[in-house]
Write a structure and sequence with these properties.
This protein is α/β, with parallel strands linked by helices and 379 residues long. It is 36% helix and 23% strand.
Length: 379
Amino acid sequence: MQILTVDIGTGTQDIYVLRTGMSPENGLKLVMPSPTMLTRRKIQAATEQETDILLTGVTMGGGPNHWAAEDHLRADFNVYATPSAARSFNDDVDLLQREMGITVVSEDEALSLKDVRKIVLRDFDFEAIANSFDAFAVKLDPDAVGVAVFDHGEAPPDVSDRKFRFDFLAARLQEQNRLSAFAFLSDQVPPALTRMKAVAASAQLDCPLVLMDTAPAAVLGALQDRRVTARARSLIVNLGNLHTLAFRLHDQRVEGLFEHHTGLLDQPHLERLLRELAAGTLRREQVFAENGHGALILESDPLPLDEPGFEVVVTGPRRSMLADSRLRPYFAVPHGDMMLTGCFGLLSAITDHVPGVGTEISATLAGDYNGNAPWETEA
């Protein structure tokens, strides 16, 4: 059985294929440029060639592609975009036209545009991934797929994106206090999660698809590191390129969390936030006032952060921010690979949401496989 997982971040998209019946370490792996970085390069090439661009496709992640589009406009070239593509930068397309200068056009109008470079937006490109594996004589035919993206959600015009997202995180934990509550089968994605819904609509798969938020996926993956699971209570922080999210956990139940923008943090600031989260004193208003998303305390019993042997578990591409920290960080390496932490979390989420394949995934991750080398198990 093949299970494909794709963790889509700002810098990279991390791709992993679990082959049940053999060790997770013998799964197939790719760490490639993220879709937003690939789109950025296409926009920059159009700027260098002094060509107007047309953005089509579906809503995808922003960041580098958004900044490249702004540079293109500043260079005095036009950026046309269909409504779905434009929402990659902001849900309010009127604001994009008024303040950024993008020209939003209908699908029909897009077809009539001449002398423009057409750039198709999407986060998940199964065909490209399958072709990459095909180049190495691997036929990708998954029995289930998991994709992780960071989704702010479509906030009403008068509501902060930061507030809207954190309201959603808090509400999900009130409904289901588990990390896989942030994962959804493709036909059950809440309407407000427009980026996840865009992946679901454009994936074109013949197997179950699970969508999940990136940070909870990384934390769930870190829990597959045996050194992490040895303690009943833990503090795990995912230091992403753009966002930092930390969870206090007790037997995988969430005791508290906070979310902030990584670019606004340095080591002393981050250490203070983690200490206050551990103590149960961190407040949502405090984090929001710092231009973060917020904080939530569900259990006030302090975490013994200074107890001998207690470690703050760290993952994510910006994890070096806590190098040599007084908090004694432990850099999680589930199944020997930090870069695939989110992919391993997706596997756990698929197990919860797709029972038909969950049994084999769980057995493989737990070490129940035949022990043979890959060439001895494949036809």
